[in-house]
Amino acid sequence: MENKEDYSIIVEDVTKKFKVYYDKPNTLKERLVFWKNNKTDTHTVLEDINLKIKKGETVALIGTNGSGKSTLLKLMTKIIYPNVGKITTNGKLTSLLELGAGFHDDFTGRENIYFNASIFGLTSKEIDKKIDEIIEFSELGDFIDSPIRTYSSGMYMRLAFSVAINVDADILLIDEILAVGDQHFQDKCFAKLRELKESDKTIVIVSHNHSSIRKLCNRAIWIQNGHVRLDGETNKVIDKYLEECK
Amino acid sequence: MIKDLYKYRELLKSNVKKEIRGKYKGSFLGVLWSFFNPLLQVAVYAIVFPYIMRIKTDNYLQYLIVGIIPWTFFTTVINQGMITVRMNAGIIKKVYFPREILPISVALSGLINFFISCIIILLFCVFGGLGISWHLLLLPFIAIIQFFLTLGLVFALSAINIYIKDTEYIVQFIINMLFYGTPILYTATLFPTTVRWILYLNPLTELVDFYRDIFMYHQMPQLHHFIYLVVVTGFVYVIGRLIFKKLEKGFAEEV
User: Fold this and answer.
1) Assigned architecture for domain A4-91+170-245
2) Interface with chain B: mutation pick from A119, A128, A163, A172, highest number of B CBs within 10 Å
3) How confident is the model over B97-116, as a mean pLDDT?
4) B39: which of A216, A226, B173, B179 lies 20 to 30 Å off by Cα?
């Protein structure tokens, strides 16, 4: 028998619909006056998705823009919730959907590490232990004690990425952010992801960078129009995907 | 829920700090305004009511202060708490964290402010010749009941406000009414006993009465009033949390 504990993420019969408002009723008046002729359409982004991701797997989600990859990732982090179905996750989860959540421009890089990491659920003691590692990884040097409004966008991203990747999570959800910083920093991030993969973390990545996915992931899931089109070994899935997209 | 909050205690802590400092950020006196504001309000009423309205209550100045400082605790938390989910839209859309942290940190910062403000009440009571007594030991309990009552309301209001933005304005109006529906400026004895009970349906009336018992009259609050307050608070808190839990799943989409 299969053991539920072996899986990091279980997605069962998940359907997600978004309401599309043409005229969103924001106030009570609008709600009362227009309660009948509210033009809302529902747009089904994901339909009947069933997935099981094992502990230690590194999975890539691929597909064209608007196919529902990012929505699926958001559902897994519990930022949004499915209309139908259930998503179970096992273990501490960190998502790198958007970098720099909770950053304050007027505070220094060091202070922002504390803000950002606390949103990921770390305590100040845990952050104390990791802060040197985070600063070193970001390669910000002395800039770490300057307010982040003085940072260039590359520095900002490097800091944000360094915090997120150094949060000790069992499950990492990453959306399209392998393209952070210059080539040198990208290589470093890639190496860090490999290291995490070796240490038996579960990683789910949404990316269009097929060459790095091929190197990093052992499983790819192709999502098309809100359905799982193909699920299997990375190279096979990507080849098939590229063939069809031509 | 408590386990979740414990895990995210660092976030709670930094949020509470932000709430306390943030409101008056950039002003010269900073946090001190949260203590000056109620005092200035007291000054206005202390001048207006005895002389113009000819109200004659013993120790009217103290009577006002013990009423207004808990009232400020209540309104600050409601006003800041109501918009807290909306104000934090940025991080709600980006990351998962227990959403309760937002209203809880507003209520906690209010509670901390209130405890500090109690020093002002004490100073006025001592120097006004009213003295202090062991009844002060009851203060934390009454304050915590007020904390849960307000938190329950903020849970509900902050969530509803995401879906219906009018909530803010409606609540503002109700709070203005409630100020006169609570014996802060006047005494409840102004009303004949036949209608006075209506005033006491308002849990804030009960609270203000208890604070006055503790600080001014040095007596135990009456038990049946106390039980009524606890029941109302429990009810408001449970309903408020249910509403929040029900609505929080849509925050990232609706906000």
Assistant:
1) 3-Layer(aba) Sandwich (3.40)
2) A119
3) 94
4) B173
